[in-house]
# Entry
Amino acid sequence: MSAFKFENFPLTFIIGLICFAWLSFLSVITFG
# Structure
């Protein structure tokens, strides 16, 4: 399980960055 999580870490990191960028984008549209 630990190795499985380690293998998927890059994918999780990329998804996190995309979610963060998307939330920032929505914030700019909503409040900007």
Q: What stands out?
A: The chain has one domain: 1-32. Residues 2-31 form the longest helix (30 residues).
